[in-house]
Amino acid sequence: MGIINATPDSFSDGAELQKLGTDSFQLDIDKALSRAEAMVGEGAVFIDVGGESTRPGAALVSEQEELDRVIPIIEAIRARLDVCISADTSSATVMREAISSGAELINDVRALSTPGAIEAVSASKAAVCLMHMQGKPSTMQNNLSQASYESVVEEVFEFLRGRVESCSAQGIPRSRLLIDPGFGFGKTVEHNYLLLKKLTHFSGLELPMLVGVSRKSMIGAVTGRAVDKRLAGSIAATTFALISGAKVIRTHDVAATMDAIRVNSAYSSAE
Fold first, then answer.
1. 3-class DSSP state of 84
2. What 3-state DSSP class applies to 128?
3. Rounded mean pLDDT of 17-32?
4. Closest by Cα among 217, 28, 108 to 116
């Protein structure tokens, strides 16, 4: 899963896609399309388009602003590329418009907990990835010394199990569900690595697992590397996730990640 950040304050690469010569942030569709084309050429099966930054400390954006950021690029990708489009959003309105514009997957950091979200997906044929997050993006990484988990693995598992049950009760079949333990979303470095070490525990939910560790602070914390220097660490973490059963890897670096996936596949199938 390659990433298109249609935001000015992405921790990694969103501003690179900004239209030049404008005072306010406007996505350059041609730049975004070129990025998407390159990622598909490198092996991406999904392109994840997001218009609300969920980095630690991120401020909320209006629904209209999020629509203005993501719908044009979803439409452009759908017209140009044969790829599954994922909409990274928690807004029911954005979900409906994204699906109408060609998105086939909703990637929701709030696990369909916002008003109308679960109904929006239920009324469609789209798949959805349910992610765990403690707190909210604007504050989730504040005071991490006070991050409250008695057992982070069990609590994340039970949260996801509960959201799966809620989706089923609302008519969303399990065949349309994925899960994501939410690395970096209201968790300490230690929490993140314990989740990574115990990732096989989530196979108990019997659903495909999406993992996103690309360039995150959990990588920087142990390598001391800046955001744009975290590829090797990201690949190492990705390899552990693959060995533990991850089925979708969300990444900024598609080509290198595909190399890791191919090597893991060859290793796993060797007899």
1. strand
2. strand
3. 71
4. 108
More confident residue, 140 or 132: 132
Annotated catalytic residue within 35, 69, 230, 250: 250
User: CA–CA distance from 9 to each of 60, 113, 120 (Å)?
Assistant: 11, 24, 27
Exposure on the CB side of residue 75, measured as CA atoms within 13 A: 10
Catalytic site includes residue 250: yes
Residues 87-107: tens digit of each pLDDT: 999 999 999 999 999 999 999
**pLDDT value at residue 37:** 97
Q: Kindly name the residue from 197, 216, 225, 247 that is annotated as catalytic.
A: 216
Active site residue 216: yes
Give CA–CA dist 22/240, Å, rounded: 42
Tell me the C-alpha to C-alpha distance, in Å, between residue 241 and each of 167, 196, 207, 244.
25, 7, 15, 5
CATH of domain 2-134+149-264: 3.20.20.20
pLDDT tier, 141 (very low <50, low <70, confident <90, very high otherwise):
low
Between the CA of residue 73 and those of 26, 76, 86, 126, what are the distances in Å? 11, 5, 11, 18
| Model confidence, pTM | 0.90
Q: Are 95 and 120 in contact (CB under 8 A)?
A: yes
Which residues, 6 or more positions from 246, have their beta carbon under 8 angstroms from its beta carbon? 199, 209, 210, 211, 238
Mean pLDDT is lowest, of 77-81, 144-148, 251-255, for 144-148
**Residues in a beta bridge with 205:** none
Is 163 buried (19+), middle (13-18) or exposed (0-12) by CB count in 10 A? Answer: buried
DSSP annotation of 127 reads E
